[in-house]
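Interim report, section 4.2 (structural modelling).
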Amino acid sequence: MTDYTLLYILFAPFVGAIALIFVSNRQAMLVRGIAAGSAFVSLIASLYLFYAYDHVKGGFQFVQKFEWSHQLGISLHLGVDGIGTPLVLASGILLFAGIFVSWHIKDRTKEFYIWLLILAAATIGVFMSLDLFFLFFFYEMSVIPMYLLLGMWGSHTKKYNEMTDPAGLKQRDSVGFIFNFGANSKEYAAMKLVLFLSAFAVAALMGILLIYKFAGLSTFDILVLREQAKLMNIPVLGTTLDKIIWILIFFGFASIAPLWPLHSWSPVGHAAAPAATSMLHAGVLMKLGHFSIIRVAFEILPETTRELMPIAAVLCMFSIVYGGFVAFFAKDTKYVIGYSSSSHMGYVFLGMAALDYISLTGAVMYMFAHAMATGMLFAMAGWVYDQTHTRDIPSLGGLSNRMPFISGCFVIACMASIGVPGTVNFIAEVMIIVGSWNKYPLQVIVAVVGIVLTLAYLFKMMRGLFYGPMDQKYSHAHDAVAVTDRLPLLIMITVSVGFFFFPMHLYNVVRSGVDPLIAKIIRVVPVASQDRETLSVKREAQTSGVPNQPQDVFDHASRDTLHASRGKE
Amino acid sequence: MTFALTISPSDLLLLLPEILLTLWLCLILIIDFSFPRLRNEQLAFFSIAGLAATLGCLAWFDIADITGSLFGNMFVLDGMALFFKMFIVGSTILVVLSSIDFIHRFKFFRGEFYFLVVMSALGMMFMASANDLLSVFVALEFSTLGLYVLVSYLREDMASNEAGVKFFILGIFAAALLAYGISLVYGETGKLVFSDMTSAQATPGLAIGFLLIFAALGFKIGAVPFHSWIPDTYHGSPTPVTAFLSIAPKGAAFAILLRMFFVSLATFKPVWILLLVATSILSMTYGNIVAIAQKNMKRLLAYSGIAQIGNVLIGLATGTKMGSDAMLFYLLTYLFANLGAFAVVIAVSEAIGSDEINDYSGLGRRSPFLAFSMLIFLLSLAGVPPLAGFIGKLYIFVAAVKEGLYLLITVGLINVVISMYYYLIVVKKMYVTEPHDRSPLKVSGSIKAVVYVCLAGTLAIGIYPQPVTDWVVSAIMMFSQLADPTASLPVPPAVVPFGG
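Predicted structure of the assembly:
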C-alpha cells in the first residue's frame, strides 16, 4: 500500500507544468529541460509499473485511496489492472517522445509544454482511475488543453489557405460544419473537437449519474459498484434502465474512440494539431474511449454488455472500411494518418465486441501497439511539415534523398501500422482476427480487407512523400540528425519491435486483466430467462470459483455464442 | 401585532456585524466630508478595513456557533444567514478593491461611492437574516436604493443613465409586486413570519401572493421571465458596480428564496418544484443561447449570469438538504469565477478602454497573466475540471439526480455544452487571434490582488472541495428535516389553483 508509483506517474507532469509557470520563456533550454525531466520521471515510473505488475496475482494493483468528498461519495481511488498498465506505459512513452518531437517550437514554448503536460497527465489519470467521478474528471480535463494546443500551435489546411477570394472567404468556415470537406481552419477544428467531445461526454456523465442514482450506494467507486450495483430489470420508457445507461455510456465514450459515425471531429483535429499533440491524441487520447467503455460498461453492466455489444460489431465494419477509403483518397498527410487511426480503432472495437479472451487481449495489445505506430507516423508527418511547410502529398516527393533517416523510419512505421510481422501490431491483429472469427466471420473478412487498404494508402503516401521527383523548392529540407530529433523515433521503434520479440510479459499482463472481465461477462446467465434464486446461486458459485480457469469457459461460451450468431446472420 | 422591544446586551451581540458596519458607514461619510483632499485609495482601504472587521466578526460567530433570533423572529442569525453574510461582505471587499482603478472615471462624489456600496451591502446583510415578509421588504428596498444610484454613477455617460432608468423602473415595479404579494399573503394567513406559515391552506389568494413575491425575487436574481433589465444594466453600469450586482444581491435573494420555499412552503413542494423547474430551464436555455450572439464582454457575462442562475435554481428545485448545500456551494464557486472575470474586464478596459470581445484579441501575448486568469475564470464558469465550477455543477446535478429531476439534468447538461462554445470564443480571441497592437498591458496592484484571490478560490475549491462542502453542509443544518427523503414529502397537497 505504500507504493506511490501511480502518484509519481500521475503527478510528475502536473508538477512539471506548475514549475514551468515560474520559468521565463527566454530560457528555452530550461523550459525544455523541465518538461523532459518531468516526462522522464513519469516514463521511468510507468516502466517500473509495467514490469512490477504481478500478472499471476492479477486484479487491481498499486491501489491508492484518498477520501476526497464524503458528501458526494468520491475518493481519489487509483489503481491499475492488466488493461490499464500497458496504456499507462504507452502514455508515458508518447509523452516523453512528444516532448522531443516538439523540441523546435519557438512560439510560446513554455505554454506549449504546460498544456502538453497537462493533457498527458489527464490522460494517464483516466487509465488509473477506479472512481467514476475521477474517470470523468480526468476525461474532461484532457479536452480543454487540446483546444489550446490546436488553436495556438496548430495549422490551417491547405484548401483553407487557398480560399482567399471573397466567395471563398465566406465559405471558409461555413463549409462542412457537419461534413468535413477538408477546408478548415485550426480554430474550427479545435472548436469542433471540444464541442463534439463535450457533447458526448455529458451523455456519458448522464449515464454515470444514473448509475449513481439507481445503484443507491451513494458512491462513485467502480469496485463497489461492480460488486453491488443492481441495475438490471428496472423498466423505463418501454425498455430497461440498464440498456439506457449502457447506450449513454457506450456512445458517450465511443465518440472519442472514434467509432463511425461519431468520428468526424477526429481527422479534422489531427490535421490541425501540432505533431506532438497529434501523437498523444491518436496514440492515447482515442484509447480513452475504449478504455472507459471497458472500465465502466464492461465492469458495471456485464450482462447488458453481452446483450448490446453487437452494436459495436456492426459499426466497427463501417469504421474500418470508411476510414480506409477516405485515407486512400486523402491528399493531406495528416488526414491520411488521421483517417487511418480512426479506421484502425475499428479493429479494437471488433476485438471488444467479440467478448472473447483472445480477441479482447488482442484489442488491448492493439491499443498499445497502435499508439507506437501512429505516434511514429505523426512524428514524421510533423517533421516533414516543419521542413517543407506543406502537408499536401501531390506537391511533395523525393524527400528520401534529403532525409534518409526519416524515410527509413517511415518504412518501419508503415509496416508497424499495417501489422507486418516484426512489430507488435502483428501479434495484436492476429489475436483480434483469430479471437473474433468464431463469432463475427463477416467482420473479420472486412478487417482483413482493411489491412489491405492500410497497405495501399500507407504505401501510396510513402511513395508520394519520399520517392519520385523532388520539387527544388524543398531542397533546403534536411534530415533529423540531432540526438533529440532521432530519440523519439528510436524509442517508439524499439518498443514496437521489441514487444514483437518479447511479447510474453505484455500478453500475460493484459490477459490477467482480461480474464476476470470476460469470465464475468460470458458466465453470467441472462437475467430475463432466470428467476432470482438460481441467479444468486450462480453468482455465489462464480465468486467462489477461481477466475483463472478460462479454458473450459472459453470453449463452452464460444460454442454457445457461435450458434447464437449463426442464427442472426 | 406588538413587539416587546427589550433588547439585552446578548441580543445586541447578534447584531454586532450590522452595528459595526453601520458605524463604519457613518465614519466613511464623516471622513469623506472632513478631509476632501483625501485620496480615493485611502478611503477605499478604510472601507475595506471596516468590511474586513465585519467579516472577521462573522467568521467568529460561525466558529463559535453564535446563533439566535431577534424582534419576534423578524431577524434570525443561523448558519445560513452567516454564510450569506460572509458571502456578501466577502464579495463587497473584492468589489471595493477592484473599483480603486475605476474610480477616476467618476467626475463627482467619489467618496460617496464607497458609502453607497457598503450601504447596499448592509441592506443585503439584513436580507440574509430576514425571516419575516416585512423585514424582507424593508431590507430589499434598502439595499436596492443604493444600487439605483450606483448603476447610474457615470453621470455623463448615456448608457449608464439608461441602465439606471431601466433598473429603477423595473426595480420599483418589482417592489410594487412584492408589496402586493405580501399584502395578499398576510390577508390570507394573518402571519408574516416565514416559519409561522407552514400550516397555511392552499387558497388562490395565497398562491397569487407567493407567485408575486417569487416574481419580485426573480427580478433580483435575474431568472428568465424577469431578466429583462439585466443585459442593459450590466452593460451600462460602471464595471465594479456590475460585478457587485452580479453577485451580492443574488446571494441575498437566494437566502430569502430558501427560507420561503423550504420553510413556509415546504408542504407545497410538489407544486413549486414545477415552477422552479420551468424557471430554471428557461433561464439556462435563454441565457446560454443569447450569450452566443454577444459582442461585448459585459453583456456576455450578463447572459452567462442568467444561465448560471438557472443552474443555481436546479439546486433550489430539488427541495432537499443536499440541493440547498449544492446551491450554496455553487454560489461560492460563482462568486470567485465571476468576480475574477469582472476584475479582468476592469483591468483590460483600464488599459485599452474597451469592453468589446474583439478588443481582447491577442490578450495572451499582451498580458499572459490577465489572459490566463480570464481563461481559468471562464472555464470555471463553463464547468471544466479541475476548477471550482465543475464541482459546483456536479454537486447540483448529483443532488438533482437523487430527486429524479431527469429533464432538468438533461437540459442542464446540454447547456453546459452550449456555454462551452461562447466561453471558448473569448478564449480563441485571447489566445489564437493575433493582436493589432502588441504593447503589453499594465495591471495595477489592487486588481492583481483581486485576481489572485479569485484564482486561489477557483483552483483550491476545484482541487480539494472537502472543507467548503463541510462548511455549506453545516451552514444548512436548519433544513436537516429535509435530509431524510421520507420526511421531505409530507402529505400530498390539496388541489392547488395555480396549475403548475
